[in-house]
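Table S2 (continued). Query chain:
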Amino acid sequence: MKKLKSKSAAWIIALTLFSFTTSAQQIYEITVKDAVNIAFKNVADINNAKMDYKIAESRNKEITGMAYPQISASLQGNHYLSLP
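Corresponding output:
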């Protein structure tokens, strides 16, 4: 009798846990075009290539900026209120 109660209790617990896990699933419906767009957005190689391009572009601007002449200016003035 004890074996029967423990088996039935185990089945009840298992079915209860299984029912909680199946209710958490959601169904998503997307088109093939949407799936391809999502895949292209999330491809690591493409994202890395975009970042490398931006880094190279920034370096090129930095080097071009170093090639331009550097201009600096300063201004100094004295105003004597009374003659020394």
